[in-house]
Amino acid sequence: MSMRHSGIGMTSQRTRMRMVERLREQGITDERVLTVMNTIPRHLFVEEALASRAYDDVALPINFGQTISSPWTVARMTELLRANSSLGKVLEIGTGSGYQTAVLAQLAQEVYSIERIGSLLTRTRIRLRELRINNIHLRHADGLLGFPEVAPFDSIMMTAVTTQVPESLLEQLMIGGRIVYPKGSQKQNLCVIEHTSQGFIETILDEVKFVPILSGVISK
C-alpha cells in the first residue's frame, strides 16, 4: 500500500483506529463493520484539501452539491443493513464518493451501485479501481428506477433522503430482504423496511441529515 493510501499524520492508520473507537463509544456494535471501516482509507474519498478532516465525525462536501456521510452514519446504515447476517447482492442508490460503496463491498458478495451525476461517477469509478475493489458494478442512471435486470436484491441502501421508497425499488427487494434509507424532509430519520411474506414492515430509528434524492440523470 502506498503512503497516499495508508496515510500520514491526520490521515494515518492510527487516526483511523481512533475513529473506530469513537464509533464504538457512539453505539456501533457490529465488529465486522468496524473492522472494515478500520481498513478503508476514507481520506481518499474526499478532496485533498479536506483530507485532514476525513476521520472526523462530520459529513463533508464532495462537489456537485453532494456530501460524503459522516463515519457514524456510514457505520450505522451498514450495521442496520447487515443485521448481523451476511450480505449477498446489494443495491445502493447514490454512489456519491464511493466510500459507502467500498464499505459494502467488503461485506457483500456483489454491490450494484447507481449514480445520477456522470462526472461524479467517473471520479468514483477511478478511485474504486485504484483500490482494486472488484465486486462492485457501477451504473450511471436514475437510481429511483433501480437495477431491474439483476433484481431481486436481498438488501437495498438509499443514501439520499426521500419521503417514501418508490414502488420500483420495493418490487426489487426479495422476501426476507431489507431497505435502509433516510426518510423525511426537514426532520429526517433512518428507516428500515423489511419485506416479509405478509408485506412490508417499516421501523423508524435515528435522526439524521441527508441531501434530498432527485430523479433524472446528469451527464456532466
UniProtKB/TrEMBL annotation:
CDD domains in the record: AdoMet_MTases (cd02440)
PANTHER family to which the protein is assigned, alphabetical: PROTEIN-L-ISOASPARTATE O-METHYLTRANSFERASE, PROTEIN-L-ISOASPARTATE(D-ASPARTATE) O-METHYLTRANSFERASE
The keyword Transferase is assigned to this record: yes
Reaction equation(s) it catalyzes: [protein]-L-isoaspartate + S-adenosyl-L-methionine = [protein]-L-isoaspartate alpha-methyl ester + S-adenosyl-L-homocysteine
Short name of one Pfam family: PCMT
One GO location term (cellular component): cytoplasm
Function, as annotated: Catalyzes the methyl esterification of L-isoaspartyl residues in peptides and proteins that result from spontaneous decomposition of normal L-aspartyl and L-asparaginyl residues. It plays a role in the repair and/or degradation of damaged proteins.
Protein name: Protein-L-isoaspartate O-methyltransferase
Organism field: Nitrosomonas communis
Superkingdom per UniProt: Bacteria
